[in-house]
Design a protein that fits this description.
The chain is an all-alpha fold. It has three domains: about 150 residues, no CATH class; about 110 residues, Type II secretion system (T2SS), domain F (Receptor-associated Protein), CATH 1.20.81; about 60 residues, no CATH class. Helices cover about 80% and strands about 0% of the residues. Helix 7 packs across helix 8 and helix 10 runs antiparallel to helix 11. The radius of gyration is 27 Å and the shape is flat. The termini are far apart.
């Protein structure tokens, strides 16, 4: 492997052969991961019977008292759990991020995406630049580790914004149901059926948990853990207090809906007032890239030396770091918490 990397670095292997090698490596990696993590050929019923029999022999319990529910601290695959435990310092945090993004907490899939992204980034950097092989590997690994987290953050923000926009209307539907004489669980069920994801999905999960014997405050706490929103926390606290102390729940939820709508209006007002500063930040942050493209179109050879020369590469790295730092400072200046 070291000899192969030296040949690639010295130019003995052409770019075409290098792409072919990377393609073969990716194909072999996918095949290997498939054979490691693929489910067994046994049917679902046979697997359940194996779990029941093995659990009964181990614990000495009758079959009616054995739970076949998958534990939350594992994925069901020992090999995958071991790899995840070795590669990720906090796997529970990743599972929580995936749940809040509306995805199944499958860390094996996230691991495969990270590896594939790292390989693709390494290949593109190696073909497009003359950077040293060690720097290319480090940058490829960093891109592979950071890209899935950025994707999860984007999906989580989009899901939260959609939930906040639909949540007051769902509360109004519950208020109308309570005034008509329906119990709160039935009102939550109706909201889960009437509203799309993510409001409908979370309320349906709450009613399903209550149907199988769970308590409403506990199911709401689980939903709050999956969402991580202050707006839903207000709803959970209001229902928990009403369950313990009693009172007019319809009036309480109506006041909560009004508060959430005013909170949303305040956020929109802040967004409008800070739009000028954000536009200035976008313009200032994009100016270096626009000027480089103009220079590249006028004199490609002059602009390309910025990436082929080592001093230019250092200047690009410092410049990108300073731009990122300035954008972060301006983002903090125009971001307000309500």
């Amino acid at each position: 492997m070291i000899e192969l990397l030296n040949q690639i670095q010295s130019g003995e292997i052409s770019n075409l052969n290098f792409v072919i090698l990377i393609t073969i490596f990716v194909f072999l990696l996918i095949v290997l991961l498939y054979y490691i993590f693929r489910p067994s050929d046994d049917s679902t019923k046979a697997r359940i019977e194996k779990v029941l029999v093995s659990a009964g022999k181990k614990d000495g319990l009758p079959l009616s008292q054995i739970s076949i529910r998958r534990k939350e601290d594992g994925s069901g695959n020992p090999t995958l759990d071991k790899i995840i435990h070795n590669l990720t310092p906090r796997p529970e945090l990743l599972r929580e991020k995936m749940q809040r993004a509306g995805l199944q907490p499958n860390l094996g899939r996230l691991l495969v995406i990270s590896i594939f992204t790292s390989i693709c980034a390494f290949a593109l950097l190696k073909l497009g630049t003359t950077t040293h092989i060690a720097v290319t590997i480090i940058v490829g690994i960093a891109i592979g580790l950071g890209t899935p987290h950025l994707g999860l953050y984007f999906l989580k923000s989009r899901r939260h914004n959609k939930f906040i926009s639909l949540f007051p209307d769902a509360i109004d539907l519950m208020v109308r149901g309570l005034k008509a004489g329906l119990p709160i669980t039935e009102c939550i069920k109706n909201a889960g059926e009437e509203f799309p994801d993510p409001v409908g999905t979370e309320f349906t999960a709450v009613t399903d948990g209550v149907k199988v014997g769970g308590k409403l405050p506990e199911e709401l706490e689980r939903a709050q853990h999956r969402l991580g929103l202050q707006e839903f926390q207000f709803f959970t606290v209001a229902l928990s207090i009403q369950t313990e102390t009693g009172g007019n729940l319809a009036e309480t939820l109506a006041n909560l809906s009004d508060i959430l709508r005013k909170r949303k209006q305040m956020k929109l007002k802040i967004k409008a007032m800070s739009s000028e500063a954000k536009a200035s930040a976008y313009i200032i942050g994009s100016l270096p890239f626009i000027m480089y493209m103009i220079i590249y179109m006028m004199n490609p050879g002059y602009a390309t030396e910025l990436f082929t020369d080592e001093r230019g590469q250092i200047a690009v790295a410092i410049g990108l770091f300073m731009i990122a730092l300035g954008c972060a400072v301006m983002y903090k200046m125009v971001k307000f918490e309500i």
